């Protein structure tokens, strides 16, 4: 992970709270003002081009907003973004890469010498 462990956990906790509040407020608004929320979500879908898909049905898509599955997906994406970031003097993110042979591995797999020893001591 790119961020130091102490900073990463604090930031992950903050992201958890942000996403939880976002989902709870969105769910409440979806219950109280369903038509308005539907219009906003459809407008967002038009900007992204999703509504131009002939297989698109807002009746199947809109109820997934602010669901438990939505919460876990957004949380996972936001946490992954934190792990892919680095700070000055911090560790580089351990991003996945593909070798020319097609084998999948991570950047830290290529560490050698002093860098590898320093990483192992810090882990």
Describe the structure.
This protein is mainly alpha-helical and 123 residues long. Strand 1 (96-98) and strand 2 form a beta hairpin. The chain has a two-stranded antiparallel sheet with strand order 1-2. It has helices spanning 5-32, 34-48, 58-61, 68-83, 113-122; strands at 96-98, 104-106.
The 3D shape can be described as flat
> Helix proportion of residues, in percent?
55-70%
Q: What structural class do helix, strand and pairing data support? A: mainly alpha
Query: How many helices in DSSP terms?
Result: 5
State the separation between the terminal residues, measured CA to CA: 10 Å
Low-confidence stretches: none
- Give a short account of the largest sheet: 2 strands, antiparallel
Mean pLDDT: 80
Order of helices and strands: HHHHEEH
- Residues in β-strands, percent: under 5%
Using only C-alpha atoms, the radius of gyration works out to 20 Å
Q: Work out the number of β strands.
A: 2
Order the strands across the largest sheet as they lie in space.
1-2
Q: Summary?
A:
With 123 residues, the protein is mainly alpha-helical. It has helices at 5-32, 34-48, 58-61, 68-83, 113-122, and strands at 96-98, 104-106.
